[in-house]
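Lab notebook: predicted structure, single chain.

Context: the supervisor wants predicted structures on file for every construct in the current expression panel, including those that have not yet been purified. This is the next one on the list. No modifications to the sequence; it matches the entry in the shared construct table.
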Amino acid sequence: MNSRSPFPSRTFSVLLLLMLVAALAQAQLRFQIGAGVGVAIPASDYAGTTMDFYSGTKYGLGSGLNLQAKARFGLLGLRLTGEVDYSSFSRSGEAQPGQGTIDLSQKVVAIKLGPEFYMGVPFAPVTPYIGINVALSTFSGQVQFRGVPKVPSATYDLATAVRLGAGFNGGVLVTLGSFTSLDLGISYDLMNASDKAWEDTDRTQDQRLDSYLALNDNRDPFYKAGDEKHFINNARNINAFQVKATIMVGL
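Prediction complete. Output recorded below exactly as produced.
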């Protein structure tokens, strides 16, 4: 009767497991954190002029500063990223030709979470990537009217609003050292992809000013053609580009 010791097969199994663990340890398991700066560029209905803002067709904002903190965890070519972004937008101009001026400013703080997909370039210190995310954005700001028809001259605060959105991004990671890289990226954010709303911040009065004191990205339910107090007749999309550079440090 022949018998074989289980030792060789057990040894082989252990060696195979150790090899698998070692392979995983070498498979781009990374954690990075970093901070960056860039420019935020309004798009779609978020852009335009102060005349567009006064007429209610667009928000009329211009480009501004973007600051961000970013964290990235990656394994086997897929990385999950989280970001906290601060963006500022502003513009000054006339309400109508020769009829008063408007100073606009808005600030957006966004929390983003989503995957990134990486494409290695052999023998090059760069790694291109693309990604998608979901984002929770908080809007605040101010508007100042001076000599504008049908609106009292003063500085007003925009009611804080929160919107759920999504975004798409891409870029390239440039290796600077063993633990440091430069993340050069661009993104396009749909900041109010859902939860559009109309808000009347002062229900004790019915006045044109009400349309300017909240985000009001949905159609005014009281809109009537030719009504000077209720003049926003379409939902408005709040989109923006971001072009940024981020220093990332980690394993």
